[in-house]
Amino acid sequence: MGTRSAIRSAMVTPHEAEINLDAYARLVVGLGRAGARRDAFLASHGLDEARWQAIDDGWQARLSESLDATGDAATVPPFVDAYARAMERAQCGESQIMTFERFVQATRAAQQGGELGKNLERLGVGIDDYLRASRHYTLAMTEDDALAETFRRWLG
Known about the structure:
With 156 residues, this protein is mostly helical. The chain has nine helices and no strands. Helix 2 runs antiparallel to helix 3 (38-44), helix 4 crosses helix 5 and helix 6 packs across helix 8 (127-143). 15% of the residues are buried.
């Protein structure tokens, strides 16, 4: 088995079958951004605190075991490298852009008046996520008239 397939097969053990390394990294990054909306964020991913803790404990144990198994401090274990790459992908701005449909829903909530943060929170959307999506889709709509028309039509 090559190194790449060994890493891939080592990413998900039977008790972790519900989540792979990339999904885990996205959840870690999302939870870091969720702040006080942690419970809502977990719920939006079909998790509660206890289930998340079990998943997190499993992945953290795998990372620790991988680090402990390497006798050479200068060598990055393949699993740790795979985790670092997954975290990098998860932190990439494009991977964190909500769907266009979700952006339209959030824009409707933002237009309701009152406190923006509370309006978005009711949808489980953070202000940072909304602003990131707003930048992304505003640029996209300046280059795509059909998308801009869809946005106007969906907003009503």
